Amino acid sequence: MSFTVLLLLVTYQTRWVYPDIHAYFSQAGNLTGQQLATRSRDYLQESLEILLTEPLDAAARQRAHFQMELAYSLFDIGLYRNEYTCTRPSLSELDRLKARLQAGEAITPADLREGVLGPVRCLTEIEMHQLDRRSTVTAAFVEDTRRHQGQVLIGSLVIFILGLGFWWMHERQRRHAERATQESLEWMARALRDPLTGVGNRSALHEDVLACQGQPMGLILIDIDFFKQYNDSLGHPDGDWLLRRLALLIDETLSGQARLYRMGGDEFAALLDCDDDDVLVDHCERLVRRLRVAGFQHPSHPGATHVTFSVGAARFIADRAGFEAGYTAADQALYRVKANGRDGWIVAETKRMSDSSELDLENG
Ligand SMILES: Nc1nc2c(ncn2[C@@H]2O[C@H](COP(=O)(O)OP(=O)(O)OP(=O)(O)O)[C@@H](O)[C@H]2O)c(=O)[nH]1
Hints:
By secondary structure, the protein is an alpha+beta fold. 69% of the residues lie in helices and 10% in strands. It folds into two domains: 2-161; 202-363, Alpha-Beta Plaits.
């Protein structure tokens, strides 16, 4: 839009202003203005000087006649004849005086008055009028130029304001879009987080698995034992606190090698790149042991004084079917740990397992 206005302004300037400038300068440099009259008058004055100051011999007559011829030829133009009524009689007077000079007749003061001063007066009138006309053209030109300058200034101002307006609208739009993008990103991030513990939720787990398409992965499911009893004896706020502490403990134990999710209730899941069962075994073992070392008190645990985990794990290939199979295998492993008395782990594929009694023994 700004460019269109600018283009119109330039077109206006070249189409309408340029001819004005052209007209002015062509008028100023026009020989048919006042300049021919001035020169003609000069020649007439020179001839008058010859006639008045020199003895009027044949040579002086000849020179005076020559000056008059020159004056005549510059005086005798259409513009002067058509526009100034004094031109034709003056030319006739000049003609008459030239003839008398050529014929060698005596030149009287009356002849000079009629034949030279009359035309000089006429030429002066023409000069004055032409100069006036030139002043008028100049004044009009100056006025036009001032008007055009004003228009250009206003046009530039309009373009500037329009540009400013467009920039402001564009900036507002950009900020709006940026804010909307930011909000939707935040919303998406929130939709993938568990608000209580801050770790990912079940949807995040699904997304992360699909993002690793075709890779060998490991899934560890971790379920708190007798959490209902924990809540019942200490209250839900303490239960929430325990969930947050356990999320931290699991994360620290896996030391950045796995991503952690809360599947809901008291169950967590850890996802890691893994093509070796031994890695899973190592992680499961460390999780159960670390929780024992932490020794969170569980006043209503039927088999221990502290909080315990049941852990099931399996390896799978990261695609939709592979994940379903891996999840089912890990869940079944977890169920078996529960059935075996809890506080232990099983890695599904290898069927390796540590039952609670063995771990208890290891811990003394
Ligand atoms: N404090 C708290 N409790 C929760 C939350 N979500 C689920 N629970 C409780 O977790 C408990 C899970 O109970 P169960 O599924 O029976 O599991 P459990 O008591 O650990 O029993 P086992 O898994 O068989 O050892 C229920 O009492 C739920 O109310 C939560 O966000 N905060």
